[in-house]
From TrEMBL:
Enzyme Commission designation: 5.1.3.2
Pfam families: Epimerase
GO MF term set: UDP-glucose 4-epimerase activity
CDD domains: UDP_G4E_1_SDR_e (cd05247)
Protein name (Swiss-Prot/TrEMBL): UDP-glucose 4-epimerase
The gene coding this protein: galE
Gene Ontology biological process: galactose catabolic process via UDP-galactose, Leloir pathway
Keywords carried by this UniProt record: Carbohydrate metabolism, Isomerase, NAD
NAD found in the keyword field: yes
Length: 330
């Protein structure tokens, strides 16, 4: 009953692999290492270096390892990059997800868990945003993920195929045991950038937009610890294995923090007072987005354990310091 984790050499995927192995599962990772790292896959998981769009390769992995469940993280993830390269994003996120799903249906995969995103909502009318809110992505990244969600829903209606799509809000933090963390060089995510600046890897950082209609003028996001997020996947897997129906769940804490509040938290956790420059808005950013999280709590019994901005920033800083020491990624 091996689980195929696509994108398992990446930030969230590597935490998923650790959680699965900790739970005694057998894991095979398929990753093209475009943004992931070979070292991020623990030796007791099998790593196949290749592309999710390579159907013959996926077929052979499913056959060889007796895969019954797929957790699909592989994709391109940067909102502003998707604005300048929409076709690249539709190709990697939508077209290749379709290829993967086609093999999943053909090979009788019973459980499929998909990494969706809060970006499918765009700028929601009501906050916290519920799963049944209008879907109006503001970036090709969000659209590329929404199109995959639509394909999943249609496929589940037509075939013996069940899925859970998890709409992640802003994922941050690192493995509490210090085994993995966000390692992407030239990362663009706020907490990662702030941690790099706190540790002197960058001379300063920027705040993108101070004229949003929020209390302090900067964007509000719901930051979820990566370990709580992968535990939501474990709950989704149990749900599907028990014969549960296809569902879509938000993954967030229902708590919003502004960009300036996050930077303050990183300053407090690190004790470093670094330079912060106020800059114009970045393309594709909604002003505020916070998850309604009652559905996942109720249906999957998910209970977060690390829902504090301080815990997230302290562990993200610890991982950043580890990276600097060992120069895993540069
Ligand atoms: N990080 C976030 O805040 C966030 C929020 C919402 C959703 N997500 C989603 O979660 C998933 C994982 O994100 P992450 O932050 O771990 O990013 P990441 O870049 O660290 O991981 C993505 C992994 O997928 C691999 N990959 C990319 N395209 C591939 C392909 N065609 N074939 C095989 N492997 C491929 C990369 O090498 C990498 O290891 C993505 O689907 C992303 O859209 C992330
Ligand atoms: O150096 C930085 C980096 C970010 N920001 C701001 O911080 C906020 C958060 O930005 P991130 O880049 O950390 O995250 P996003 O909200 O753009 O996107 C993330 O969350 C989305 C859902 O909300 C998607 O899931 C997406 O995959 C994931 O990258 C935004 O207002 C952004 O403009 C800065 O001010 N300075």
């Amino acid at each position: 009953m091996t689980i195929l984790v696509t994108g398992g050499a990446g930030y969230i995927g590597s935490h998923m692999v650790l959680e699965l192995l900790d739970s005694g599962e057998s894991v095979v990772v398929l990753d093209n290492l475009s943004t992931g790292f070979r070292w991020a896959v623990p030796p007791n998981a099998t790593l196949v270096v290749g592309d999710i769009g390579d159907q013959e390769l996926v077929r052979s992995i499913v056959r060889k390892h007796g895969v019954k469940s797929i957790i699909h993280f592989a994709g391109s993830i940067i909102v502003p990059e998707s604005v300048v390269d929409p076709l690249g994003y539709y190709h990697n996120n939508t077209v290749k997800s379709r290829a993967l799903m086609e093999v999943a249906v053909e090979m009788g995969i019973e459980n499929f868990i998909f990494s969706s995103t809060a970006a499918v909502y765009g700028m929601p009318k009501e906050i916290p945003v519920r799963e049944d809110a209008a879907l109006a992505p503001m970036s090709p990244y969000g659209s590329s993920k929404l199109m995959t969600e639509i394909m999943l829903a249609d496929t589940a209606r037509a075939h013996n195929f069940r899925y859970v799509a998890l709409r992640y809000f802003n994922v941050a933090g690192a493995d509490p045991k210090g085994r993995s963390g966000q390692s992407t060089p030239q990362a663009t995510h706020l907490i990662k950038v702030a941690c790099e600046t706190a540790l002197g890897k960058r001379s300063h950082m920027e705040v993108f937009g101070t004229d949003y209609p929020t209390a302090d003028g900067t964007c509000i996001r719901d930051y979820i610890h990566v370990t709580d997020l992968v535990r939501a996947h474990m709950a989704a897997l149990r749900h599907l294995r028990a014969g549960g129906q296809s569902e879509v769940f938000n993954c967030g804490y229902s708590k919003g923090f502004s960009v300036l509040q996050v930077i303050e938290a990183v300053k407090r956790s690190s004790g470093a007072d670094f330079e912060v420059r106020l800059s114009p808005r970045r393309a594709g950013d909604p002003a505020a987005i916070v998850a309604a999280s009652d559905k996942i709590r109720m249906h999957l019994g998910w209970r977060p354990e690390f829902d504090s901005l301080e815990t997230i920033t302290v562990q993200a800083l610890a991982w950043e310091a580890h990276l600097q020491q060992f120069k895993h990624a540069s």
